[in-house]
Amino acid sequence: MTVLFSRIKSTLFLLFLPCFCSGQPAPPLLRFSIFLDPSNMVYLRWDHDKEELMMFELQVLTTGWVAFGFSPHGELPGSDIVIGGVFPNGSIYFSVS
């Protein structure tokens, strides 16, 4: 399970970075999706390939930042978290912890 989360952490960096940059190719077709909140402001799309490499896209109506986490047990301690956003000057930041 730890190896899978390490792969996911690396994959998320590669997948989220193109979402923040303009002029990138269209994202791959992701077969699965769900709104994560009752007001439909957080939309998650995902898929996996034959090697079980997972791809995620998170669309959020936000004022400048978003965080997304993975946990093998459903709790914050020990989870892998991705945080990204846009500074007021337009530059982006992205962090995996």
Lateral arrangement of strands in the main beta sheet? 1-2-3
The backbone outline, from C-alpha atoms, is globular
Largest sheet: 3 strands, antiparallel
Q: Between the first and last Cα atoms, what is the distance in angstroms?
A: 17 Å
Number-wise, the strands total 6
User: How much of the polypeptide forms β-strand, as a percent range?
Assistant: 35-45%
Q: Give me the strand/helix succession.
A: HEEEEEE
Radius of gyration: 14 Å
Contiguous helical run count: 1
InterPro entries: DBH-like (IPR000945), DOH_DOMON (IPR045266), DOMON_domain (IPR005018)
Protein name: MOXD2 protein
Keywords: Signal
Organism: Ciccaba nigrolineata
What is this entry, summarized?
Residues 40-97 form the DOMON domain. GO terms for molecular function: copper ion binding; dopamine beta-monooxygenase activity. The chain has 97 residues and is α+β, with helices and mostly antiparallel strands.
